[in-house]
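From the shared-data thread, chain only:
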Amino acid sequence: MNKIFTKIIFLLFMLFATSVAVHAQSIIVSGSVTDKLTKEPIPGVSVVIKGKTIGSSTDLKGQFSFSTTEKAPFTLVASYIGFASVEKEITSTTANITFELEATAILGQEVVVSASRTPERILESPVSVERISSSALKELPAPSFYDALNNLKGVEMSTQSLTFKSVNTRGFNANGNTRFNQYIDGMDNQAPGLNFSVGNIVGLSELDVDNVELLPGAASALYGAGGINGTLLMTSKNPYQYQGVSFQYKGGINHVDDNNTNQGVREFKQFDLRLAKSWNNKFGIKTSFGFLQAKDWAASDTRNFDRTSRQLKSGDRSSDPNYDGINVYGDEISQNMINVTQSLNAGSLLA
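Structure, as tokens:
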């Protein structure tokens, strides 16, 4: 018993000594990133050690900080969409490192992965790829990034409700498109039993979207036979490059001058929250939360409709056996059983 206790104490001592030694060898790399022209801080800039995945991203003040066991000399790379990447060799001091990024044109330089599942420039892609980058997401003139997919080339979108939209390319669109693939971080998010994606209901929060890529054509060799009419890939932000707390609130109104509802103007509210944290670029965790509340369209028109003449007519369910309400479901096909009974009775009397 004493030997077992001694071994346990020795093992704990060795683990403690190892952790202390590793901690003692790690160094803190910190600094800031600014715009070369305006001298303003740039948030969201990726600063990593060249050839490694170790690094961090700048906060709202343009500052970054991370720990590493890499020994000097090594090279830091600061990169951000819309700016030219800058490399700086670190030989001694690792604090107060400054980067100045210069804006540059990125036409044709965007990197896509959807065409061949390997990073490549969009101009070198063997197929046509439509892409929405993280910087473009901030400038979208749409309630959400998913609504902005309708602005991409070759996209047709049908709207079933405020949060349920069906994306389609190459024709043959339908409410709930079973010919279109939708992946989130490589995972198919089709609804079980429906075999199609229900819009972005079980998708990404807008704060957690890194980029969106659309293949407006068949890609069966890479993503299966389900994407006859196209494939959509949504990539989320990883907690190593995008750390910290972020939130947003959107507000608006709808149903302005809407005669189909007697409740007047309705408020649109949306709140998103994202938390992300990583430790030594070996372990990371993130979580996101989204809340949306709004009044969708109201199916309140119960007027009687004549499908033969394609116009409204008088009557309701109690007075018209063939009543067909505009927003009343389940009464599109009906039969006047009184007339059927009278015909049967007349036939039996003749017989």
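Residues 20-24 have pLDDT under 50 and may be disordered.
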